[in-house]
Write a structure and sequence with these properties.
This is HAD family hydrolase. This protein is of the alpha/beta class. Helices cover about 35% and strands about 25% of the residues. It has 2 domains: about 190 residues, Rossmann fold (3-Layer(aba) Sandwich), CATH 3.40.50.1000; about 70 residues, Hypothetical Protein Ta0175, Chain: A, domain 2 (Alpha-Beta Complex), CATH 3.90.1070. Helix 1 runs parallel beside helix 9.
Length: about 270
């Protein structure tokens, strides 16, 4: 039976220049491979070693990129290795099959959102009314499914984030702070539901996963074995669960370590 590997991308497998966390002397820094260009500028990287590990993983397992990115944002990433047959975008709102949205899956997601949580328009209006232009750079809506703000992190009041979380909780939404972005996402919109669907379709009996943010917690709870890096929301809150390994590595080194753990598990070796 195939092994399914569902992994978050940003700050889990791929990293912006600001998130690389290269703490070693320059002469000992790893060689990097750029895997994303945006507006003619390099944006995301992994180590060359990680690139080879990801290629090997794609040959040995069903690798499923699992991201909160929109489809457009995901499709500008050029990962090494075989093209994934499945990918999960918009936090589970879109299931891509050979790069194309599965319309039945998306329709089912929309139906769940309509039944179980407040509408997106209400959340957008609340963000517009309460977020201070002093520290908000952009208001964004992703795939007509959820909203996020791009903020000046050093000016963002922690109390505002907590108040937003409490307000959203009562309306069936959740809030996540990731770098310079504050996400408001409907609770039924989950990576785990889409991963379970891919596992059903592929017949996978073993599922592996990795992620760094609170939006990845449901994914890590859904898989048989999971890993989180030493940075991100999950590390900051010391979140863990049975079957989830908290790794000490931070930055791009964590991405390399996660891929090593994936491959070791796929091949049946002992895991850290």
């Amino acid at each position: 039976m195939p092994v399914l590997v569902a992994s978050d991308l940003d700050r889990t497998l791929i990293y912006s220049a600001a998130a690389l966390a290269l703490t070693m002397p320059d002469a000992r820094a790893p060689r990097l491979l750029c895997v994303e260009v945006h507006e003619s500028r390099p944006l995301s990287y992994l180590t060359e070693t990680a690139a080879q590990l990801l290629t090997d993983l794609g040959d040995a397992a069903v690798f499923v990129p699992t991201t909160t990115r929109t489809r457009k944002q995901y499709q500008r990433i050029n990962l090494p290795g075989p093209a994934p047959a499945y990918a999960i975008c918009a936090n589970g709102g879109h299931l891509l099959v050979d790069g194309v949205t599965d319309p039945d899956w998306h329709a089912g997601v929309l139906a769940r959102l309509a039944d179980e949580c407040a509408p997106l328009a209400e959340v957008r209006a609340h963000l517009e009314a309460t977020a201070d232009p002093l520290w908000v750079r952009k208001h964004r809506v992703a795939e007509d499914l959820f909203a996020y703000l791009v903020v000046e992190r050093e000016l963002l009041p922690e109390e505002w984030v907590k108040e937003l979380g409490a307000w959203a909780e009562n309306r069936g939404w959740t809030v996540s702070l990731q770098g310079r972005k504050v996400y408001a996402v409907p609770k039924p919109l989950t990576k785990s539901a889409a991963v379970r669907e891919v596992a059903r379709r592929t017949g996978a009996e073993l599922t592996l996963g990795a992620g760094d943010s609170l939006l990845d917690a449901d994914l890590l709870l859904a898989v048989d074995r999971g890993w989180r890096p030493g940075h991100g929301e999950l590390a900051e809150t010391e979140w863990t669960a049975p079957g989830v390994t908290a790794l000490p590595e931070r930055g791009v080194a964590a991405g390399e370590r996660i891929l090593r753990e994936f491959l070791r598990s796929v091949r049946g070796g002992p895991s850290a």
